[in-house]
Structures are given as structure tokens and as C-alpha cells.
């Protein structure tokens, strides 16, 4: 059952508000709008990239009917805290999961992620806690006073590393859902995050090339003027 169908089944509709993340997943905001409700964006936790329970609680109003939680990059959201918010305010809490990979594939991704954790320099590696399955290995590229993630990504691609920007534009910046709302962690994550490959098919030589390319750049490219 899709998000819109679940919201309808719960009686969520016109005049209601549903709290959703703005860090990706525009389809959630579209599903909320489809049932006649208003998507309300809450900020993310900078470690998990999932909804921050404190930010969700701060976004609750008398019109809030539900919260839609998304697990990101293989790192689960803090469901206990989010369900606690739901219980305190009488809200429906929906989960949007990620497709599960076979155990062997997850184990190989974790092995490659562990290698990158130990070898990478100049980028902030992901938190590895709480059962992370590394559907994406997302690092932070921090600049000297300003992000230079895009220049870093271009340089890696020149060296043959298949990296990608996981969220190019947060949903609250898109024309159909533009909101005047303070989401500093969402904005920062959209500007700084970069997904590096950890596919099970990667060889040791592939992993060494990724590390060599990243460490040669140092994560701190000078911005071009």
C-alpha cells in the first residue's frame, strides 16, 4: 500500500498536516498533497539523515495528523523517539522503508565501508551505528568556509570514481513545495553530501582507487574565482 493510500485509510485529508522530511523523497510530499493534506517539513538529524525527533515535535500543530518517517542510505531512523512523539500527540507514524538486500550483499557492503572508514582522509565518513546496511556510503565534503562538494565530485569522476550527489535539491526548495522554513541540517546535508561506491562487485583494486582519488584531493579543494 502506498503512502497516499495509507493516509486515506487513516482518515487523513483536507485540512490536516503531515510532517515529512525535505531531504529527498519528493514523492512523500506529493502523496500528502494528493489526499488534500498539507506537507509540513521538519529538519533531519545530521548523523542519520532521517527526521530529527525534536524537530518533528517542534513542527506539531493542532492540525497535525501524521508523520512519515524515511530510513536513509541504510541507516534506520530513531523510531523509538519518533513513535514517542506520535504517542504524545496522538499522531499516526508511517514508515517508508528501503528495499532489503540479501545478507551476503549487505556483509560485503559493510566490509567495503569499513575499508573506506579506515582509509579516507579529508572527508567526514558516515556513522556506522545502529545496523547500517550502507545502501549508500555517504560522506561529507567540507570546504574552507563554503562547501566544495561539487568540485570534489567532478574531480573524482575524472579519475573514474562513480560518485553521485544523493539529494541535489531539498523538497522545500522545489517550486511546487517551496516553504519559508528553517531547515539548517537539511540545507547543509544537501550541500555537502556525496555517495561513494561500495557495491559488492567492487574489487580491492577498485576500493584502493577510490581511496587514492579522494585522499589526493583532501576534501578541501579551493573554490574557483
Number of helices: 8
Strand order of the largest sheet: 2-1-3-4
CATH fold node name of the largest domain: Aspartate Aminotransferase, domain 1
Helicity range: 25-40%
Question: What Rg do the Cα atoms give?
Answer: 19 Å
Secondary-structure element pattern, one letter each: HEHEHEHEHEHHEH
* Oligomerization state: single chain
Compute the number of strand runs: 6
Give the C-level CATH assignment of the largest domain.
Alpha Beta
Give start-end ranges of low-pLDDT stretches.
Answer: 220-225
For the report, how would you describe the main beta sheet?
4 strands, parallel
Give the overall shape, derived from the CA principal axes. Answer: elongated
Total domain units: 2
Which range does the strand content fall in? 5-15%
Distance between the termini: 50 Å
Mean pLDDT, rounded to whole units?
Answer: 91
- Which structural category fits the helices and strands? alpha/beta
Relevant CATH superfamily of the largest domain: Aspartate Aminotransferase, domain 1
Task: Please summarize what this structure is.
By secondary structure, this protein is an alpha/beta fold.
Structure overview:
The protein has helices at 3-9, 26-34, 53-59, 79-89, 103-119, 149-158, 184-192, 204-217, and strands spanning 17-21, 38-42, 64-70, 92-96, 137-140, 193-196. It is of the alpha/beta class and 225 residues long. The protein folds into two domains: 3-96, 3-Layer(aba) Sandwich (Aspartate Aminotransferase, domain 2); 103-217, Aspartate Aminotransferase, domain 1, CATH 3.90.1150.10. It has a four-stranded parallel β-sheet, sandwiched between helices. A two-stranded antiparallel sheet has the order 5-6. Mean pLDDT is 91; it is low at 220-225.
